[in-house]
C-alpha cells in the first residue's frame, strides 16, 4: 500500500515537547507534533510500542490490583481477545486498519496481535521510533518555579536505572486508562474465603477448571471473559446491573452459565447472595468493573483533580484551562472509537501548540467546562461518567475536525459504529463473525482506495 504520510506543516514555533506513553495516543501525538516541526520525546516505560495492545501472559502480584506496592503490568488483554469494533471503522482516519502484507489476521474483528502489528506499522511508516525512549518511565511531571515550562523526571526501567531531569515546553499525557482497576464493593467480602481478581489480570481460562466463578459486570470484557471461562469452569454466574428480564436465568446456548442481578452480600461460608434472591457457593469472583484514571507522576499543585473518576477541570477533555496549552491529555473519553478520536485530538493540540488554532481565554474555557458539568447533571449521570461519550462522540469528533479545518468523520464510519454496536448486543456470541452491513464494508474500502496517494 502506498504511503499515507501527510504533508508537513512547519510551525514558526519550535517547541520541545514530552509525550508520556507510546500507545495509540502517544504515537499519533508524536506524528502530529513532529509534522509541525516540534521536537518530540516520547517516554515509554515498556520495551515496545502499542501500549494496551502488547499482550503479556504476565500478571500482577496482587490479582485484584488494589495493593499500591504491587508490580504493575500495563496491558489488560486476555489471550483470546479479538477487537470489539470492526477494523474498517476502528483505524486512524488517514491510515486505514486494512490487512497488510501476508501472515496477518485478515478477519473483520481480528485478534489483538493484528492490532499491535498495525500500530507497529504505523510507528515505522511515520518514522516515530527514533523519537521514543523505551524502558523509560516518567516518575514526575511538575511546573518550573517560574511556572512557564515543565520539569520531567524519568527513570530507566531495568539496566542501570539511570535517572534524568529535563525541561520541556509542554507535556502531552497519553498514559492510557485501562491499568488501574476499579473494584465492586461487596458487603461481607472481607470474611468471604474465596479468591478475587480483576479482569486486568485475566489471561486464560485454564486456572478456572471445574471452579464456580462469578463475573461482575456487563462490559465487552465481561461478556468475553465469562464465555472464555465457561469453556472450562463448572459454573459461571454473571452479576450485572444491566440484565433485563427475570433473573436468575440461564444464558442462552450455555448449560453452565447464568445471569443474576447484582450481588447483595458474600458470607464466610463461601456463599454469595444476589439481589434476585439466588445464592451460589463460588470459588472466585472476577471483577470486570472498569478502571480508574491515574496519573501518579503528575504534580499540578491542586489545579487538576481526579474525583470519582472525573478528571477536572478539562476544556474539551484535553486542556486544564489554567495550564493550557502546555499540559494536555489525549484519549480520556470512553465508549468511543478511540483511534480516530485521539487522532483528531492530536491534530487539534498540534495546531494549538503551533499557534495556528486559537484556544479561548481561560475564563471562557472554564465556562465551557461548567456547562459540560451541567449537562452531566441534567442527564442524571454521576461524575464518573464525565468522560463517557456514548451519546456524543461523533459530535465531538466533528467539532475537533472543524477546528482543524478538516471534513467531518465519514458517514459510513458513523453508521458502521452504530450498526456494529447493535449487532454486538443482539448477537453477543457471534457478532464478530456474523453481520449485515457488508454494504458499509464496501463503502469503506472504496473510501480507502481514494486515500491511497
Ligand atoms: P495505552 O494503549 O494504554 O498506552 C499507554 C502507554 O503509556 C503504555 O505503553 C504505557 O506503558 C505507557 N505509560 C504509562 N505510564 C507511563 C509512565 N509513567 N512513563 C512512561 N510510559 C508510561 N479499542 C479499540 O479501538 N478496539 C477494541 O476492540 C478495543 N478493545 C479493548 C479491549 C480491552 C480489554 C481494553 C483494555 C481496551 C480496548 N480498547 C479497544 C481500547 C484501547 O485501550 C485503545 O484502543 C487504545 O489502545 C488506547 O491507547 P492509549 O495510547 O490511550 O493507551
TrEMBL record:
Protein family according to the UniProt entry: Belongs to the FMO family.
PANTHER family membership: DIMETHYLANILINE MONOOXYGENASE
Keywords noted in UniProt: FAD, Flavoprotein, Monooxygenase, NADP, Oxidoreductase
The keyword NADP appears for this protein: yes
Keyword Flavoprotein: yes
UniProt organism field: Rhynchospora pubera
Protein name: Flavin-containing monooxygenase
EC number: 1.-.-.-
Amino acid at each position: 500500500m502506498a504511503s499515507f504520510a501527510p504533508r508537513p506543516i512547519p510551525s514558526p514555533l519550535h517547541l520541545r515537547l514530552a509525550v508520556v506513553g507510546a500507545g495509540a495516543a502517544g504515537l499519533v501525538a508524536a506524528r502530529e507534533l513532529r509534522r509541525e516541526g516540534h521536537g518530540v520525546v516520547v517516554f515509554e516505560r515498556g520495551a515496545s510500542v502499542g501500549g494496551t495492545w502488547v499482550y503479556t501472559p504476565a500478571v500482577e502480584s496482587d490479582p485484584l490490583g488494589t495493593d499500591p506496592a504491587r508490580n504493575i503490568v500495563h496491558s489488560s488483554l486476555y489471550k483470546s481477545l479479538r477487537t470489539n469494533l470492526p477494523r474498517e471503522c476502528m483505524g486512524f482516519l488517514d491510515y486505514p486498519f486494512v490487512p497488510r502484507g501476508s501472515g496477518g489476521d485478515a478477519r473483520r474483528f481480528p485478534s489483538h496481535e493484528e492490532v499491535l502489528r498495525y500500530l507497529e506499522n504505523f510507528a515505522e511508516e511515520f518514522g516515530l521510533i527514533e523519537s521514543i525512549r523505551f524502558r523509560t518511565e516518567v516518575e514526575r511531571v511538575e511546573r518550573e518555579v517560574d511556572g512557564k515550562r515543565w520539569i520531567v523526571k524519568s527513570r530507566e526501567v531495568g539496566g542501570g536505572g539511570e535517572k534524568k531531569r529535563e525541561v520541556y515546553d509542554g507535556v502531552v499525557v497519553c498514559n492510557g486508562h485501562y491499568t488501574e482497576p476499579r473494584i465492586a464493593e461487596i458487603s461481607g467480602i472481607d470474611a468471604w474465603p474465596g479468591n478475587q481478581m480483576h479482569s486486568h489480570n485475566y489471561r486464560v481460562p485454564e486456572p478456572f477448571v471445574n471452579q464456580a466463578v462469578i463475573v461482575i459486570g456487563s462490559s465487552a470484557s465481561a461478556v468475553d471473559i465469562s464465555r472464555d471461562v465457561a469453556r472450562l469452569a463448572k459454573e459461571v454466574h454473571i452479576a450485572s446491573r444491566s440484565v433485563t428480564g427475570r433473573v436468575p436465568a440461564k444464558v442462552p446456548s450455555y448449560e453452565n452459565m447464568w445471569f443474576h442481578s447484582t450481588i447483595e452480600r458474600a458470607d464466610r461460608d463461601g456463599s454469595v447472595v444476589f439481589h434476585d434472591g439466588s445464592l451460589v457457593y463460588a470459588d472466585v469472583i472476577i471483577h470486570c468493573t472498569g478502571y480508574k484514571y491515574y496519573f501518579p507522576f503528575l504534580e499540578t499543585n491542586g489545579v487538576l483533580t481526579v474525583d470519582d473518576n472525573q478528571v477536572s477541570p478539562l476544556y474539551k477533555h484535553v486542556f486544564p484551562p489554567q495550564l493550557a496549552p502546555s499540559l494536555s491529555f489525549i484519549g480520556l473519553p470512553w465508549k468511543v472509537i478511540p483511534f480516530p478520536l485521539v487522532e483528531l485530538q492530536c491534530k487539534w493540540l498540534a495546531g494549538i501548540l503551533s499557534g495556528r488554532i486559537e484556544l479561548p481565554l481561560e475564563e471562557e474555557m472554564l465556562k465551557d467546562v461548567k456547562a459540560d458539568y451541567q449537562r452531566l447533571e441534567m442527564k442524571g449521570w454521576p461524575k464518573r461518567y464525565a468522560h463517557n461519550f456514548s451519546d456524543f462522540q461523533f459530535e465531538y469528533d466533528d467539532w475537533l475536525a472543524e477546528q482543524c479545518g478538516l471534513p467531518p468523520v465519514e458517514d459510513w464510519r458513523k453508521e458502521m459504529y452504530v450498526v456494529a454496536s447493535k449487532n454486538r448486543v443482539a448477537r453477543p456470541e457471534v457478532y464478530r463473525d456474523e453481520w449485515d452491513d457488508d454494504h458499509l464494508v464496501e463503502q469503506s474500502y472504496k473510501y480507502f482506495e481514494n486515500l491511497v496517494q
